[in-house]
Amino acid sequence: HRRNKRRRVSENQEIEDRLESLILRVGERSTSSVESNLEGLVSVLEADLGTFRLKILRILSDCAVRMPEKCTVYTTLNYKFGGEFVDHMVKTFKESLKLCRWDAARYSLRFLADLVNCHVISATSLLQLLDTMIDVSNEDTVPQVRRDWFVFAVLSTLPWESALESLLLRIEVYLNKRSKKHHNALRVWSSDAPHPQEEYLDCLWAQIRKLRQDNWAEKHIPRPYLVFDSILCEALQHNLPAIYPMPWVVYRMFDYTDCPDGPNLPGAHSIERFLIEEHLHHIIETYHHERKDCAAQLLSFPFKHKIPLEYCIVEVLAQATEILFMRIDSMNTSCFDRFVNWFSYHLSNFKFTWSWDEWDSCLLLDGEHPRPKFIQEVLQKCLRLSYHQRITEMMPTTYAKLIPMTPVPNYKYANEEAASLPGTTVAHQLVVAIRQKCAPEEVVNILKDIPSSGYSGEEMSDGSFNALKIDVFVQTLLNLGSKSFSHSFAAISKFHSEAQICILHNIFELWSSHQQMMVVLIDKLLKLQIVDCSAVATWIFSKEMTGEFTKMYLWEILHLTIKKMNKHVIKLNSELSEAKDKLAKADSSSSDSEDDSSHKRKKPITHADKPSEEVVERMEEKLEAANVNQKRLFLIVFQRFIMILSEHLLRSDTDGRDPDTDWYRWTIGRLQQVFLMHHEQVQKYSSTLETLLFTSDLDTHILEVFQQFVALRA
C-alpha cells in the first residue's frame, strides 16, 4: 500500500514536470505555428485539467509575470479557466503592488488587459480598473513618483487594449501639470543633439499618441487568439473585482540613418520601439547574472529579422564605443565612469588592440577636456588589468603625455636629498628594525628620538601630534611593505587618534604614481579603523589634492568610503531590528503561555536566544552613534562641494570669465554622482541638508543639483 502511494506521488510529479515544461516552451523555436502549438497544448491540458487544475493555474500565473513577451500566447490559453484565473491574476496584481514589485504588477495588469481581447474579461470592467488607477493622478497629497507609476502602468498597457478617449484625456491633463525637475539629473547627455533625452513618461505618451494616430495598429505584438476568435467569443466574460519606483530617461543613440543596411529601425515615437526596448530590458534584467545566457537570449530575439537587432541591443546596453567617444563632451559623469570601466575591460579581452590614430585629434585639447581625460583614465584602468610596459608598448608615441607614470614608490628617505631631511637617521634605524621583525613597542621607542620641531610638515598639525614622527613611520613601513602591504599595520594603530589626515598625506606622497595602491591602502586603513571615513573625505577636498581632484581614482576612494559607512549603518539597523523582534516574540510567547496553559504550547524562544533589554539599549546607542557619523560624513562632503563650487563661481564672476569650464562640469557631475549613487542613505538627511547647506541663498547652479535629487522622490 505504501509502495503504491509512493509510485502514485512519483508519477504525479513526472506529469506535473512535463506539464510545466510544455507550458513554458509553448510557441518557442518550433517548426509549426504558434496556433498549432496552442491547439496541441490545449488538448494535453484538457486531459489533465481535473487532477492538476491548481498546478496548471499556478504555472500560467507565473508565466504571465515572468515571460511578459509571451503575454498573448498565455492569455489565449486562459479561456479554459475563466473567472478562477481572473481572480488569481487580480490577487497576483494586488500582492505585487503590496510588495513593491513594480514590473510584476505592470505585467499582471497588461495580462488582464489582453484577456479582454480573448473575451475572458469585459472591456467595461477593465476600463473601470484603468480609470480607478488614473484617479491616483488627482491625489495631491501623495508623492509624484506614485502618481507617475500608475500613469506609466496604464499607458504601457494600452498597446494591448484600445483605450477610450476620456482615459487618454485624463492622462494628458496629468502629464501636462506634473513636475520634471528630476529630468536633468538623469540625462546621459547634457545636449539634445542629435537625439533628445526624453523623460520616460513623455516618451511613452508620444508613442501612445502615435499609436492612436495609426488607429491602434502595431506590428510587434503576436496575437494568436485571432485564429481562435470563433471559439473565444463564446466564452463567458467576467468582471474584475475592485481593486513606486523612481523615474528614468529614455536612452537614445541611433535613428534610422545610422542603420543603412537591412530592416529599418522603428521611429523614436513608434510604439514598436517601446515594445522592443522593453522586451530587451526584460531579457537583460532576467539573465544579467549569466553573461553567456544573456547574449544567447538577446541574439535569439524573436523579431530579429524585422528590426536592426544589433543597433537596438547596443542602444539598450549603451556601449557603442565610437559614437560614445565622439559625444563624450556632454556625457553625464557617472556614465563617463562606466564607459571608462567597460572600455578598459573590453581592451583587456582583445589584446589591448585599438585604432588609436583615429582619436589623435584629442591630443590638441586641454588635459581636462573629456576626450583626452577619457583616454588617460582608460589607460589607468588598463594598468590595473596589465602592466606598465604593456601599456607603453600598445600606445603610439604621440600619446606619451597621456600614459600613466611608472607605478613605483617615491621614498624620500632614500633619495639624493635624504641627507638634508631631519628624519633620515631615524628612518634608516626603523628600516633595520622592521626588517628584523621587531615588535610594535620597539618601533615606538625608535620614533621617540624624532624632534618635534623644525619640520616643514609641522604646520599641518594643531600641536597635538608630531607630524614628522608619522611621516617617518608611515613612509618607511609602507615602502618596506610595497610588495606585500599587509605586513605590519599593528603598529600604525599607535597613531590612531593622532593624525589621520597626516597618514593619508604620506600615503599620497609615497604612492602618487600608483592609483590602485592608494585605493587598496586606504580601503585597508578604513577596515582597520586606523583612519575614519570623515578624515578620508576631508583629505580628498584638501588643497594638497587639488591636482588630483578630477581624477577617477579619487572618487573611487570617496565612494568606497561612503559605502563602507552606509554598510555599517545598515548592518547595525538590521541587527537591532532582529534583536527587537526576538525580544517581542519572547515576551509574546511567555504571555501566551500564562494565558493559555491548557492548550498545547508553542515552542518558546529560549533564554539564550532572547536578548536582554540592556543589550538592545546598547545596540540602539551604537546605531545612533553610527547615524551621527554618517550624517557628519555627508555634511562634510556636501559642505566641501558647496565651498569649492561657490569659490569658483565667485572668482569667475569677479574676473569676468565664463564659469562653465571643464573643471566646473566635472565637479558638478561628481556632486550629482554622490546624490544618485547613495540616494537611499542621503534621502534620510534631506531636510537637514536643506536647512544647513542647500539654502535658498545658494547659487542656483549648485542648488539645482539638490532640488533635482529631491524631485526624484517627490
UniProtKB/TrEMBL annotation:
Subcellular location: Nucleus
Gene Ontology CC annotations of this record: nuclear cap binding complex; nucleus
InterPro entries listed in its UniProt record: ARM-type_fold, CBP80, MIF4G-like_typ-1, MIF4G-like_typ-2, MIF4G-like_typ-3
Biological processes per GO annotation: 7-methylguanosine mRNA capping; mRNA export from nucleus; nuclear-transcribed mRNA catabolic process, nonsense-mediated decay; regulatory ncRNA-mediated gene silencing; RNA splicing
Domain MIF4G stretches: 16-212
Keywords for this protein: mRNA capping, mRNA processing, mRNA splicing, Nucleus, RNA-mediated gene silencing
GO molecular function, one term: RNA cap binding
Region (Disordered): 583-614
TM stretches of this protein: none
Pfam family, one: MIF4G
Functional summary from the UniProt entry: Component of the cap-binding complex (CBC), which binds cotranscriptionally to the 5'-cap of pre-mRNAs and is involved in various processes such as pre-mRNA splicing and RNA-mediated gene silencing (RNAi). The CBC complex is involved in miRNA-mediated RNA interference via its interaction with Ars2 and is required for primary microRNAs (miRNAs) processing. Also involved in innate immunity via the short interfering RNAs (siRNAs) processing machinery by restricting the viral RNA production.
PANTHER family: CAP BINDING PROTEIN (PTHR12412), NUCLEAR CAP-BINDING PROTEIN SUBUNIT 1 (PTHR12412:SF2)
Family label: Belongs to the NCBP1 family.
Subunit structure: Component of the nuclear cap-binding complex (CBC), a heterodimer composed of Cbp80 and Cbp20 that interacts with m7GpppG-capped RNA.
Protein name: Nuclear cap-binding protein subunit 1
Organism for this UniProt entry: Drosophila gunungcola
